[in-house]
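Following the same procedure, backbone shapes were mapped to integers, as reproduced here:
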Amino acid sequence: MKNLLVITVFLLLGISVHSQDVIRQRSCSNQTIISQVDSLKKSFEQSGFMVLKEASMTMESEFEMPVVVPLTQGAWYSIVFIGDPSSKLNEVRMYDYDEKQVFYKKLYGFEGNIISYTYMPKFSEWHMIKPVQVNKSKKDCCGYIMLLKKVKGTNDVVPAR
């Protein structure tokens, strides 16, 4: 009888957990952003970087979209965030595993929609990148993020921030 009760409790818990809403990242498409991505990829490849991860993402205006990535000590990385061209503000913060902020940049709409920076981690650990954009005319904005890594054996010139 106790076994039947335990099985019933676990079954009910499983059903209630399964029925909860799941947050899923949705991709988006913006032709201006796509052309900027293509151009940036070519430029970074010529500078000796290769794309490790990239994603388009639908972002809610004024809310951060956390992106967690593993970075290796001593490697050169380039992180690029491209916000919706109509956004009034684009901002990126990056934190190390200890939640210490290691990068911050804010761009107003008239300054552009691309935040790009290079970074060499002191330790091999997970980092969190938190882009946010503010758009007064749209609730959902399109954004794009790329993580690139310097390929060994190429020239040591790193693109400017």
